[in-house]
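Fold it.
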Amino acid sequence: MTVLPYKDKESGKKQQVADMFDNISPKYDFLNHFLSLGIDIRWRKKAIKLLKEIQPKSILDIATGTGDFAIESLSLNPEKVIGVDISEGMLDVGRKKLKKRKLDDRISLQSGDSENLPFADNMFDAIIVAFGVRNFENLEKGLAEMYRVLRPGGKVVILEFSKPKSFPFKQLYNFYFKNILPTIGKTISKDNSAYTYLPESVKSFPDGEIFVSKLDTLGFKKTECRPLTFGISSIYTGIK
């Protein structure tokens, strides 16, 4: 069963996700860092370091949001970074952030559907995604598009929430995710559904080895899953 942000609306998941991020975009960066206690910043740094060995010159950041992962990728000194997202609200916040930091000449943010990417085959050296794949309407189609636009020998790095399995962290995490996070998120973002959708979407996401097997099926090689912080999130990698 597909998890939707707004269960009372008839629109599909893709449109609802776009609407949700448009709604919360003004408060998204603050909530992201606040609710994760800043750990998400360390996760992004760790994920980007996994690309160092291939020294990518062209990087595509899918579901870029406000561009944090794209900005972190600049540490690799690429020639071109493009971020795509279906939420114009998030992209608008991201463009203002890039302009303020004088990075708008190094990163291009544009509207784009992860399941129908507007790029040629074999175009990018690396593809990165942070907390975005679980929001895809069709996960397999989105992953197949990543494979298509990645050059042979290129690398994909996906950072996504996962489900802790060990006691007592599993129980503490579930309590926080189901009770505290939605309350704070709703109060600050003024969106009643967005931070209820977050734990529901994480719960339904095929994490760990199940997700790795999906990458394998699509043709990615040397696939790996690296759990982070007691399994709160994981980094998935693969080579085309």
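The two ends are 30 Å apart (CA to CA).
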